[in-house]
Design a protein that fits this description.
The complex is a heterodimer of chains A (956) and B (304).
Chain A (H helix, E strand, L loop, with lengths): L1 E6 L2 E6 L6 H7 L19 E4 L2 E4 L12 E3 L12 H9 L8 H14 L5 H7 L11 H15 L27 H5 L15 E7 L5 E7 L1 H4 L4 E5 L30 E2 L5 E7 L2 H9 L2 E6 L6 H5 L10 E4 L18 E4 L11 E9 L2 H6 L3 E9 L2 E2 L7 E7 L2 E6 L4 H12 L6 E5 L15 H11 L3 E4 L2 H7 L2 E2 L2 E9 L5 E13 L7 H8 L10 E9 L13 H18 L4 H8 L6 E2 L14 E2 L5 H12 L12 E11 L10 E7 L5 E5 L8 H12 L7 E5 L16 H28 L7 E3 L3 E3 L4 E3 H9 L8 E6 L8 E11 L5 E11 L6 H20 L16 H4 L10 E6 L22 H13 L10 H7 L6
Parallel strand pairs in A: 1-5, 6-20, 12-13, 18-19, 23-24, 29-30, 36-37
Antiparallel strand pairs in A: 1-2, 3-4, 3-5, 6-10, 7-9, 7-11, 8-10, 14-24, 15-22, 16-21, 17-18, 17-20, 22-23, 25-26, 27-35, 28-29, 28-34, 31-32, 32-33, 35-36
Helix pairs in contact in A: 2-5, 11-12, 14-15, 15-23, 18-19, 19-20, 21-23
Chain B lengths: L3 E3 L4 H10 L4 E4 L16 E4 L8 E4 L2 E5 L4 H6 L5 H8 L4 H6 L2 H7 L7 H6 L3 E6 L2 E6 H6 L5 E8 L5 E8 L9 E10 L2 E10 L6 E2 L1 H9 L19 H4 L12 H11 L10 H21 L4 E2 L1
Parallel strand pairs in B: 1-3, 2-3, 9-13
Antiparallel strand pairs in B: 4-5, 5-8, 6-7, 6-8, 9-10, 10-11, 11-12
Bound molecules: flavin-adenine dinucleotide and FE2/S2 (inorganic) cluster (FES) (2 copies).
Chain lengths: 956, 304
């Protein structure tokens, strides 16, 4: 059938099938700005379009419903590439991070302002109520809307959308347009799914319905016989190569405990077979035709079950070590169907006890520390499994170019991805190119190679392009999640609150495979213990295999769990001593210049090194936060059911992994004096590309527009470990800065020749000039000089950055909650996140990182949680049932504040900002709940049901 | 697979199509349910109702007539809609859904977590339906027993008695979740003596419940309404729905705690990942008690 409608102002008469969804129809007609984040369930709003002046979800509309109507998508708004007022306001306010939600948000705001030219906060919330954004924490949308509203009345209106820093610098510390912003707000093709060419194959995965089983038989004949099916891959015909999906530097501290497909399935959703076919529909049909016979085994779902005597073994495998095999290695009793585990080096695993990895260590003498104590406090805390829920699910597009494999990836680790795929395919790395496209949110889940290798293998075998995109359920059951943990904390202290001993015992559940099984749980200690200056500290980490959906990296990387346990324990200790929590924190906390001895035993799979704190903004953060929240002043409600309480917590993270991470960048001078920056840094929407561009623009005294960037393409740009462990600013930023410094050196050397002045008398001046005592030359002149037939050639430099120095970001979070003692509901009235990220290089984007990290973790503190039944099925694997935070979940008063320090090792004094933001919510909310109603909630989320039970209102 | 979509321009034409077409034939309104892959049974032919002109809201002496094709957002935006219905419609999850979701489609789906049906029921709504047997007006409560396959044309809300007060409340764990509890209460007071109560509760169980036992218990106590204190907690970020459980100070009416217990005992709850039976029954007690307080304290002749 045909429908006639107006699309973005143009009459269209297009053929459509009667049951076609508007979302698919628009995509078929190359309108890619309309996205799908929830498998068309109506719960993400990424597919928002405007139909006859109403915002609706295109995934729930049939084409017949837009017949004769006027339809707008974001593509309409930018006229001749000029951004609309709303699009520009989005960039200026810093609300474009990954940008996957931006087209929907922009349409909703445009519609709002057409109905209501000066909307209040409630109206903004109403307009955006149906659109999910995982990155931004929503708060800055209020600024964006108010900016747009004012500009519609007064064109050219400007205001300060974020505080600025470092008067001595031009672009660093200033609000500057995000370099990828315009492309994303225009809704241009930018993500992996936009790269798909016609004639591609589609991959669908048959996944295990059982949490733990052997595949006795698998028959793919009927699937293979279906017209349109190109390939079916199972454990019978996949490469016999073991690997780990964790995107970590080689040699990884994670066991190689899986192949592409195994004979044993270890979680509901584990891979059984991949089908590639001419269409999605054929692939889905073919998946249904694969017949599998399972030998079902008892699943292990918790650390207690895994540790129990006689527990079923998740990996009854043959163990091998590349180096350091234990002398008593005993592989008797291994079941060949379980396959092998290869360790690059020992990580103290004991798969026969379901232990995937373990580590212990400490400083001082812990027993002495407890002897010295006046009081000893001990408690256990528990955390549940949390999913990263990037709005763009995992997706990859692979294709051949001659004899080389091209991988268009939505990844945090292009180079690790290349290395892992090369290993599986048995080819050398030069045969593979990884192009990181814009990433629609990563948050750790995209640090791992959870689908790329399968698509790559299928393309390698068939020679055909393959698209593989997870649906939302797969995102829950087959990507990455936060490890559930049980953490025992034992504290010794003097009566005045000074800590004499800290012991932490972390028992973590890594799920079926050991991606990050050592390092995430270790971070529960390494990112929480160094906050306290205590002479006697000991930790023990045991990570267990189980049959829950896979765990791995998630923003914060174990620190949110560790921080919850340790910070809450200190709060409980302070309370039990009758001391003010804030003063106990002040008494024990780390300072500028403190030596962090504990870090010598917290290296990630290798020897650690003690570090000196090079900058620490905790003092001012605590001071200002206490003022903002009126610490010490008890608030009362007029409602007898409402009790109000306040909480405080201190947090830290790292800035990459000194001694392990490395980053590189190169800068080339172009003919007209502008610059091309090639950065290995992987921007996930965080603003890293803007940051590296600023590094070059600042250092070389040029306008930001004079620097163009290509990043994270393994063929084009130099190596970078990737975006994880909060390394972006410190490592990728420093690499760009080092490259800029090398270019500055070359520019001065050449200018010295041209001006005939010694280099020492020359300096760079803005814009794009080298000035001496006698005269000056422009970069364009330098370029012509070197590029001419008599010159020395185009100036191009490459620099790398490695370091053994650490730069720790710090922060203090304060909150005020109102607990309704009748309903059990916890409402956050005030949440203030004060964070020291050194020099905030991109202040508006740094604020967005904080708001986003905090709201995500308010989510897991209050209502987010993956719930498994006793057979290991996740029963809430949708955005709605899992309950991702929406704009209407915002704290009533939500403020992120940047506390400036100038780190001596960070580029222009910068440190990381994003991951740390996830570490405060759980302990600060739990402390505030206690302050309000006198109960400690020692497991997250703090649901109304748990609060009511703790209050004795309902039976336990 | 959908093979055909028809766009009738009149009720008669729509009925004719429904009668003549074979297979899995459904009406299509906003499409938020029927266009979902989870809708069962999947339709193979659809009759799109937009051309029927059923999107009017009319007020006359009898009451309000809402065309079945009116969307939830339209209900909120139309000045003729009484406040208590606006409030109920505004409880529905978000603007995008409210812009598409029609009242007719909503009633036919009859989801237990509906945020508007409890209010329509306590307001005594009826529905006008067209089928092979002609036009029928039936009470909404009867219609919901078995929505059937007839065409729902309009929803009629009788003129609210001057002394009737209606209040609705919902509770969801987070903004993107379904209502765990959704309730509406109406009370009729003459000379401040409560002569009628109706309590409808949804969300907690597989089916919506009318709490008749609670209603009878309360009526038998022959209580009067005194204006009770209402705490405004907006400055604490607590939405009024969560905070206004207060002492009713009614003469014979039980205190809030007793009222809560009365309701909790009467409620049938089904456990799921949103909560245990104990929790749901308890929370239902809180919500209903709160809604009742608000209804008693509210403006007569409409919502609170
Ligand atoms: C993501 C999402 C979130 C939601 N959240 C909430 C919420 O928070 N609170 C809440 O109360 N509800 C909620 N709903 C339910 C929503 O209100 C209903 O889906 C909507 O009202 C259905 O109306 P529709 O016009 O889209 O129906 P359609 O999908 O078009 O039709 C639904 C059914 O009704 C039939 N039908 C439609 N119109 C007529 C008619 N006039 N006569 C006879 N049969 C008819 C159709 O044949 C079909 O069987 C939600 C729905 C979604 C998808
Ligand atoms: S894709 Fe339409 S709402 Fe999620
Ligand atoms: S910017 Fe909103 S989802 Fe990433």
């Amino acid at each position: 059938m045909k429908i006639k409608f107006k699309l973005n102002g143009m009459m269209r008469e297009w053929e459509t099938a009667p049951g076609e969804k508007v979302l698919d129809f628009l995509k078929r007609h190359s309108v890619t700005s309309v996205r799908n984040g929830c498998d068309c369930q109506g719960s993400c709003g990424a597919c928002t379009i405007v139909v006859n002046k109403k915002t609706v979800n295109a995934c729930l509309l049939l084409t017949a419903q837009i017949d004769d109507k006027e339809v707008y998508t974001v593509d309409y708004l930018a006229k001749n590439r000029q951004l609309s007022v709303v699009q520009q306001a989005f960039i200026d306010a810093g609300v474009v991070q990954c940008g996957y939600c931006s087209p929907a948000m922009i349409l909703a705001v445009t519609d709002l302002l057409s109905r209501n030219p000066s909307p209040d906060e409630r109206a903004v919330k109403d307009a955006l109520s149906g659109i999910f954004c995982r990155c931004t924490g929503y708060q800055q949308f209020f600024t964006a809307v108010s900016l747009a509203a004012k500009r519609l009345v007064t064109p050219g209106y400007t205001c300060q959308t974020a505080p600025e820093f470092r008067e001595d610098l031009r672009v660093v510390g200033k609000v500057e347009p995000k370099v990828d912003g315009p492309r994303l707000v225009r809704g241009e093709k930018a993500y992996v799914e936009d790269m798909v060419e016609s004639g591609s194959l589609y991959l669908k995965m048959l996944r295990s319905p059982h949490a733990h089983a052997y595949i006795k038989n698998i028959d793919t004949t009927d699937a293979l016989n279906m017209p349109g099916v190109a390939l079916v891959v199972t454990h019978k015909n996949c490469p016999d190569v073991y690997y780990n999906q964790a995107g970590q530097g080689f040699p990884e501290p994670s066991p190689y405990d899986r192949k592409l497909f195994g004979e044993k399935v270890r979680h509901v959703g584990d891979r059984v077979a991949a089908v590639v076919a001419e269409t999605n529909e054929i692939a889905a049909e073919a998946v249904k035709k694969i017949r599998v016979e399972y030998e079902i085994l008892k699943p292990v779902l918790s650390v207690d079950e895994a540790a129990a005597e006689g527990a079923p073994l998740v990996h009854n495998s043959v163990l091998e070590y590349v180096v350091g095999a234990p002398k008593d290695l005993d592989n008797s009793g291994a079941d060949p169907r379980d396959g092998r585990i290869i360790y690059q080096f020992p990580i103290h695993a004991h798969p026969k006890k379901n232990i995937a990895a373990s580590v212990s260590g400490g400083i001082g003498a812990i027993s002495q520390g407890f002897k010295d104590a006046d009081v000893v406090f001990e408690q256990e805390y528990q955390t549940t499994q949390i999913q990263c829920t990037p709005l763009e699910p995992h997706v990859v597009y692979t294709k051949m170019a001659g004899d080389r494999l091209i991988i268009h990836a939505s990844t945090q680790v292009p180079w690790h991805l290349r290395r892992i795929v090369a290993r599986i395919l048995g080819v050398s790395e030069n045969k593979i190119r990884v192009i990181k496209e814009r990433v629609g949110g990563g948050f750790g889940a995209k640090q791992d190679i959870v689908l790329e290798e399968v698509a790559a293998y299928c393309t390698w075998v068939t020679g055909r392009p393959v698209l593989f995109k997870f649906n939302r359920e797969e995102e829950f059951i087959a990507s990455r999640t936060r490890h559930p943990m049980k953490i025992k904390v034992k504290l010794g202290a003097k009566k005045d609150g000074r800590l004499t001993a800290i012991h932490m015992h972390v028992r973590a559940n890594t799920g079926p495979y050991g991606a990050h099984c050592l390092t995430v749980p270790m971070n529960a200690c390494s990112k929480s213990l160094p906050l306290f200056l205590c002479d006697h500290v000991h930790f023990q980490v045991d990570t267990y295999y189980s049959n829950i959906p896979p765990c791995g990296a998630y923003q914060g990387y174990g620190a949110p769990q560790g921080s919850y346990a340790l910070q809450l324990a200190v709060a409980e200790l302070a309370d039990s001593l009758g001391l003010d929590h804030l003063s106990v924190l002040e008494k024990n906390r780390v300072h500028d210049g403190s030596m962090l001895e504990i870090l010598k035993c917290l290296g990630e799979g290798r020897e650690g090194v003690p570090q000196k704190v090079s900058s620490c903004g905790l003092g001012p953060a605590l001071k200002k936060g206490a003022q903002m929240i009126a610490w010490g002043h008890k608030e009362h409600s007029a409602d007898p059911d409402i009790r109000i309480g306040k909480g405080v917590t201190i947090i830290q993270q790292g800035s990459g992994l000194p001694g392990l991470d490395s980053a590189n960048a190169s800068v080339t001078l172009l003919g007209d004096g502008t610059l091309m920056l090639l950065s290995g840094g992987t921007d996930l929407g965080t603003g890293l590309d803007t940051l590296t561009t600023k590094m070059v623009a600042e250092c070389l005294c040029v306008k930001m527009e004079a620097v163009s960037l290509i990043a994270a393409d393994t063929d084009v740009t130099p190596y970078d470990d990737g975006a994880y462990a909060s390394s972006g600013t410190f490592f990728s930023g420093s690499a760009a800065l080092e490259a800029a410094k090398a270019m500055r050196q070359k520019l001065i050397e050449t200018a010295s020749l041209m001006l005939k002045e010694p280099a020492e008398t020359l300096s760079l001046v803005f814009p794009s000039q080298v000035k001496g005592q006698k005269g000056s030359v422009t970069f364009a002149e330098i370029s012509r000089f070197t590029q001419s037939g008599t010159g020395s050639g185009q100036i191009s430099v490459t620099a790398g950055f490695t370091t053994d120095k650490a730069a720790f970001p710090y922060g203090a979070h304060f909150c005020q909650v109102a607990v309704n003692t009748r309903t059990g509901e916890v409402r956050i009235q005030k949440y203030y996140a004060l964070q020291d990220c050194g020099t905030p290089i991109n202040p508006e984007l740094a604020l967005g990182q904080i708001y986003g990290g905090v709201l995500k973790t308010i989510g897991h503190s209050l209502y987010e949680e993956m719930i498994l039944d006793d057979t290991g099925h996740c029963i809430n694997a949708t955005l709605r049932d899992y309950r991702v935070p929406m704009i209407n979940d915002l704290p009533a008063d939500f403020k992120a504040e940047l506390v400036e320090t100038n780190d001596p090792f960070g580029p222009y004094g910068g440190k990381s900002v994003s991951e740390i933001s996830c570490n405060g919510a759980a302990p600060v909310i739990a402390s505030a709940i206690h302050d309000a109603v006198g109960v400690w909630i020692r497991s997250w989320p703090f649901s109304a049901e748990k609060v009511l039970k703790a209050l004795g209102k309902i039976e336990v | 697979m959908i093979t055909n979509i028809f766009r009738p321009q009149s009720v008669a034409e729509a009925l004719g199509l429904k009668n003549d077409l074979k297979g899995s034939v459904f009406y299509l309104a906003g499409g938020t349910e029927i266009n979902s892959k989870d809708f069962y049974p999947q339709p193979d032919q659809l009759i799109f109702l937009e051309g029927l002109g059923l999107n009017q809201i009319q007020q006359d002496n009898e009451g309000l007539t809402i065309g079945a094709h009116c969307t939830m957002q339209q209900l909120i935006d139309d000045t003729k809609t009484p406040d208590f219905i606006k409030q109920a419609a505004a409880q529905i999850i978000n603007r995008n859904i409210r812009n598409a979701a029609t009242l007719g489609g909503h009633l036919v789906c009859n989801k237990p977590y509906s945020d508007i049906i409890p209010t329509l029921l306590v307001a005594g709504a009826s529905v006008e339906i067209e089928g092979p047997q002609g036009t029928k007006v039936v009470l909404l409560s009867d219609f919901l027993q078995a929505p059937g396959t007839d065409l729902l044309v309009a929803v009629k809300i009788p003129q609210v008695k001057a002394d009737r007060r209606v209040s609705c409340l919902n509770y969801r764990c987070s903004a993107n979740d379904l209502s765990l509890i959704t309730t509406a209460v109406s009370v009729v007071c003459q000379d401040r003596v409560v002569s009628e109560i109706m309590i409808i509760l949804g969300g907690v169980g597989l089916k919506r419940q009318r709490l008749l036992a609670v209603e009878n218990n309360l009526i038998s106590r022959n209580f009067k309404v005194d204006r009770a204190r209402v705490h405004s907690s907006q400055n604490e970020g607590i939405q009024p729905r969560q905070s206004q459980v207060s002492n009713l100070a009614g003469r014979v009416l039980p205190g809030v705690d007793e009222l809560q217990n009365l309701v909790s005992r009467a409620v049938e709850a089904t456990p799921d990942f949103r909560g245990s039976v104990v929790f749901k029954k308890y929370e239902a007690g809180v919500m209903v008690a709160q809604a009742l307080c608000r209804a008693c304290e509210g403006q007569a002749g409409g919502g609170s």
